[in-house]
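Appendix B, example 12.
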Amino acid sequence: MGKKSTRRMWTEKLSKHDGGTFFKNDAQTLNSTSVSRGFKGVVMGIDASLRGTGIAIVDFKETQPVLMFSTRITCQAKLSFFQCIERIFKTINAILQNFKINYAAIEQTVYVQNYKISHILGSAKGAIIAALMNNNLQIAEYEPLRIKQAVLGIGRASKEQIRRMVCNILGIEHGISYDESDAMAVAFCHAWTFKGNL
């Protein structure tokens, strides 16, 4: 028996994930051109970071997904750790007052270089999760490789490849920040791979 392709191995890995139902054969690979799009709803995608959290709100309709809003929550170096956490929490709360969100999706932290970075990222995500829960939203988390696989069909895509793809799909300019395009990719991952209840 020949070696399995990377695409086949990744698809099989996703099919065994217990977070939902996934595509199980190469005829239904997880990329922007072949995924069945039966999903409808408004998704807030979030790429968490202490200094530059990406936010994107995408409305998935029957035909074409529409970007409703995107931003980067910037926390300058002059702001303390605690001021950054406060800004993230308050900004997300404020955004949620202006949009009716059906689902929230956030990128999962899979690997960090050291304890300090892990603590910083965990705290930023904690502020985000608290804001989402404060607004009665259920949350889904997705591994970075799964997000890239869902959007581009490959798990090792660059940030520039992700940005080009999501901008092309949404029909928007490519000048957005990587944090925003990463957040859009998280939203696409949720819409294109999640089925069932959170």
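The beta strands are 41-47, 52-60, 66-74, 103-107, 139-142. The chain is about 40% helix and 15% strand.
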